[in-house]
Amino acid sequence: MIHFEHVTYGYPDTERDGAHAPPTLADLSLHISEGELVVVAGPSGSGKSTLLRCLNGLVPHFYGGRFAGHVRVAGLDTCVHEPRDLAATVGFVFQDPESQFVTGRVADEIAFGLENFNVPPTTIRLRVEEVLDQLGIAALRDRPVHTLSGGEKQRVAIAAALALRPRVLVLDEPTSQLDPEAAEEVLTALQRLNADLGLTIVLAEHRLERVAQFADRMVYLPGPVVGAHGHAPLLGPPRQVLRHAPLVPPLVELGRRLGWEPLPLTIKEGRAFLSGLPGGRRTEDGGQKIDLSPPLIREGKGEGCVQRPFAIELEGVSFAYNGHPALRDVSLAVQPGEFVAIMGRNGSGKTTLLKHIIGLLRPDRGRVRVMGQDTQALSVADIARQVGYVPQNPGLLLFADSLRDELRFTLANHGLSLATAPIGLEALLARLGLAGLADTYPRDLSVGQRQRAALAAILITRPAVILLDEPTRGLDYAAKAELVALLKGWQAEGCTILMATHDVELVARAADRVVLLSAGQVVADGPARTVLTDSLSFAPQLGKLFGDPARLTVEDVLATL
Amino acid sequence: MSWRPSKRRTTGDGGRTAFIPRLLSAITFALTNLIGLVAYLYPFWLPVRLAGGETSGHAGDALLVFGLLVSLCLLVLLAEMTGGAVNAKVIAVLGVLTAVNTVARLADNIVQLPGGFSPIFLLIILVGYAYGARLGFLLGAFTMMVSAFLLAGVGPWLPYQMFAAGWVGLTAGGLGRLGLRGRAEIVALAVFGLIWGFLYGAITNVYFWPFVIAEGGSWEPGLGLGETLRRYAGFYLATSLWWDAMAAVGNVALVIALGRPLLSALRRFRRRFQFEIAPELVGV
Amino acid sequence: MGQTGRLHPGAWLAWAGAAGVAALLTRNPLYLTLIGLAAGVVWAAQRQADKTAFLNGRGLARLVATVLAFSTALNMLFSHSGRTVLFYLPSGLPYIGGPVTLEAGVYGLTTGLAIVTLLIIVIVVNAAVEPAEMLRYLPGFLYSAGLVATIALTFAPQIRRALLEIREAQQVRGHRPRGLRDLPPLVVPLITTGLENAIGLAEAMTARGFGQTALQPAHALRLRVGLALASLGLFLGLMAYGFRTALAPFALGLVSISGAALVGLLWWGGQGARRSRYRQHPWRRADTFVAGASAIFLAVLAVLYRLAPAQLVYDPYPRALLPPFAPLVGSAIVLLTAPAVKAKKGKGAETVGDKP
Lengths: 561, 284, 356
What we know:
Radius of gyration of chain B: 21 Å
Helix content of chain C: 55-70%
Low-confidence stretches of chain C: 346-356
Largest sheet of chain C: 2 strands, antiparallel
Oligomer: heterotrimer
Shape of chain C: globular
Number of strands of chain C: 2
CATH topology of chain B: Arp2/3 complex 21 kDa subunit ARPC3
Largest sheet of chain B: none
Strand content of chain C: under 5%
Order of helices and strands of chain B: HHHHHHHHHHH
Structural class of chain B: mainly alpha
Number of helices of chain C: 13
C-alpha cells in the first residue's frame, strides 16, 4: 500500500562550498502493507521526520529541495498530488502539541479538516462525535484547547487527523514532549486503533520500549550517509531489527548480550528467561524496604562529627500558586557532589522546587539555603553565579547570532568576559560535543545540539550546583548517554547536580539519590537503588524484571554474572 | 545516482500571474487606498454644506458615512490581499506575528517600558520592511483588530485604526525596496518610526475631530484649506501631540535597540523556510 | 462553556449597530443616558445567564470620568462660540484665548457621553460573544482573514506564556532587564520561536487539507475587472460629490451603486472557495426578535432624523437650552433591551443540532 522506490532527498540550502551536503534520504526503498503498525527508529537527524513527511507530500511540496524516486501511497504518487489532496488519505500528527492547533476549541479543531474538504455540516457533526468517541475524549468537546494537558492535546490532534477517515495515520514522535502517563495514553490509543480498526499506522518514536511490542515491522534509519554506500537502513520484524540496531532499550540490550531467543520486548517475555540466571528474582519478602523516614537535617552542633555545609537546603518550604498549593512543607538537604534525581507525576511540584532553589520563586513559608546562604536576601542573578539552571525549553534562551555570542552574553551578565571565564570556550564546547560550532547560528542546530548549546550558555560560569529541568525531552539514546557521561564527569569534579526528570533509565544509571514528589510533598527520599526498586511506577525495565536494587542496569546485571 | 531538478514550489497560485490581472489588482489596490485616505481626511476637503441642520448635528452623520466607506475599502483590501493565494505559511506567520504584536500591546506589565511607548509599530515596520508591503499592511490591520477584540476596544474608530496601522506597514514595504543595508538601514528605519509616530496620531485624529469639537474650534464646511489646517493644528496640539511625541521617540528607541537583531532574525527565517510570499499586487 | 441559550452573534451585531448609530447621531444627554441604561440592563441579564462575565467597575468609572473631563475641557478651551459666556481667557493666548462658554462645555460633555455610551455597548457585546466565535461567521471572501485573526487569538496566550518563560530563562543567566538595551534577549527569542511555531502550524494546516483552490482563472479575471471598475466608480463618485455641488445627487448615486457592486463582487468571489462551515449557531426566534427590535429602532431613528431632526439631535449652540425629550424616542430606546428579555428566556433552552 505504501511504496518507496529509490527515494533520494535533500533539503534545500544544504549546499556549502559548492558541494551538496549528503542527502537526508539516500536510495531508500521499502513497502508497507495495509493494516501494519510500523515503527520508524533511529538517532536524531537520521531522516525519520523526512521519511514520514514523504508520506503525505510535505516533502517535497512544503519544503522544496531535491527529490528523486517515487513515493506511492494507496496508489497516489506524492510528487504529483499536493499535500492538501493527500490529506484525505494520509493523516499526520506532529511532535509539538502546542503548535498544531488553528482554532480555540476541540470540536472546531476536529472539524477544520472536514471543512477544508467541503463536507456538509451534518456529516461533520457525525464524524466529530464519532472520532471523539474513538479516542475517548468526548468530555473535552467544548473545552478550549489551551486548557488541555499535553496528552489530551495529542489525542485531539489524532482525532483531527482521523476525522478525514484516512487510510494511513502517520505520527512524528507524538510522545516526545509528553510525560510517561500521557505517552501511555496516546500509545494505547494508537494500538487500539490499529488493532480494532485495522488502520495502517506509521510512527516515529525514540522510546522503543513502549512501542516495540505492538509493531508489526520496524524501520531503523542509521543516520547521515557516509559515502555513497553507507550504512543501509534496517527493515523487518522488530526483533530482527533490534538485534542489529546500535542503541536499544535495556531489556533488549540485556537479551542481546545474554543471547536470549527470541529477544524479549516486554517484561513478561523477559520473565521467561529469569530461571536461567543465577539469583533469579528477589521475592517480595526478600526485598529491601525503602527508608521513608525524613532525612535528618544535621546541624552539626557539637556532636563530634564535622559536617560539610550542604550545597542545597530546604526547610519546611511551602508555596502556593494562586491558592493551589504547589509545595507543602518540603524539606531537603543535598550534600555537595551528590547527584539527586527529583521525580514525580506532572504537576507534583518538581519544577516549582527547582525554581525555588534558583530564586525564581520565593517560598511562602520556610527557608531555602544555597551554599550556606539564605536565598531570601539574594537576587536571581546573585544565585545564578553559584547555581546553573537549565529550564525545560532551553531553545527559548538562544537569541544571539553565534554560539560564541551566547556565551559572551552570559559571561557579561556576571561581569566576566571570554578571557576571564572560569572555563575556556573551546574546552567547554569540546566537552559538550559542540567543537567547531562556535560560530554557527544557534537555531540552525539540531534539537540535541541546541540543548547542549543552552547547557553551555548556562555552564560557562562553572557553577557549583547544576539544576536541570527535564533535560532529556526529545533526545535519542545516544544523546542521552552523552549527557549522562557529561554530568557524571562534572559530578566527579565536585559539582552538585539536581535533575527533575521522568526518565527512569537515566536515573538508574546516573543518580545517587532519588526524591519522589507527589502533590507537593516528599513521599520518598533515599538512595536511588532502593527508591527505584520499590516503586511500581518509577522502576526501570530491569528493575521491574529483577526486583533487585543491585540489578537496575545492564551493567549491574552483567557484573553479577 | 543522479539528481532530478527540483520540484515546483508551493506558492499556492501555481506561479507568476499574468500582466493584466496584476494591473487590475494594482488599480483596485491603489484606488481603494486612495478612497480610504480621502475618506479619512474628509474635514479637509468636504466643502459642501450638508443638507439641513447645524454643523455640529451632522458631525456624527459624517462620521458614520465615512466610517462605512472606510470599512468598505478595508474589506476590499483585506479580501484582495488574503483571498487570492491561499498560502498556509503566510497565514500562519501572519497569525503568529499578530499574536506576538498583540501580546506586546498588552504586556506592559511584563517588561518595564517607559510610559507612552506603543511597542506595536516596531514589528509592523520591520515586517513591512523585510517581508514586503502586503504583509506589512496586513500585520498592521490585524494587530489593531485582534488587540481591539482582546481589549474590548472595538468601536467606530477601529476601521480607521486598522487602515492607519496598515499604512505604516505598507509604506515600510516601500522603504524596504530601497535596498539599504547596515547602519543606513537602521537610521532610515528610526527616522521612519519617528515620522510615523506623529503621523499615525495626526491622521487618526482627523476623522474624529469634527465630532469632538464644534463651532469655532472645529471643522466647518466651507472654510478654506488654510483655516481648516490651522484649526486642526490646534486640536492636534491639545490632544495627542504629547502622546504622539512619546510614541515617536519610543519608536526610534525601539528601532535602535531591537532593529538589527530582529531584522536579521526575520531575514534568516525567510531564507530557511522558503517563505514565499506570492505577489498578488504589482510591485509589491 | 456550552452554546445553549446564547443569542446568535449576528443578532448581537444588529443590536450593537443600532445602539451605536443612535449614540453617534444623537447628542441628547437624556437619550444617551437611557441607551446606556438599556445596555446596562442587557449586561445584567447576560451576567445572570453566564456567571463568568466580568466587569472592572472601578476601571470603568475612572475611564468614564477621564473621557468626560477631557472632552469638556477640550471644548471649553478651544471652541469659543456660544452665547452664554462663563469667563474670559486672555485673548493673546493662541487657540485658547477668548471667551469660555457654557455651550462649549455642554457640547464637550455630550460628546464625552456619546463616547462612553459606545464603550459600554462594546463591553456588553464583548461579554456576550467571544471574538473567536464571531470570526466563524465571516462571509466566504474573508475566510483567510478570519483565519489569521483566529490563529492570533489562539496563540496569544501561548506567546504570553513563552514570554514569561523566556524572561525566567534569561534571568537565570544573570540578565537584568533594566532598559531598552536589555530587550533583545527577551524579544528576539520570542519572535524566532513564534516563527518556528508558525511553520509547524502551517505544516499542520497543510496536512489537514488547507489550501483548496479558489476561483477559476476565468472567473478571477472577471472579478478583478469588476472590482477595478467598481472602485473607480466609487472614487469618481466621491470626488464629484466633494467638488461639484451641482452633481451631488448623481454623485451619491454613483457612490451607492459602486459600493453595492463592490460588496456583491466580493461576495460572488467568496463563493468560489468551496468550504463548508461547521457548528453554525442556529438562528432562532429569539435572534429574530432581537434583530427585529433593533431594526425597528433604527427605522424610527431614520424617520425622525429625516423629518424632525431637532427632536433627536441635540445642539447646544448657539444657546444652551435644556435638551428635549420626545416620548417616541424614549420608548424606542426601550426596544434596545430586547437581548435582556431573550437572554433570560433563552437560558436552559436546547440548541438545535448541537448533538446528533
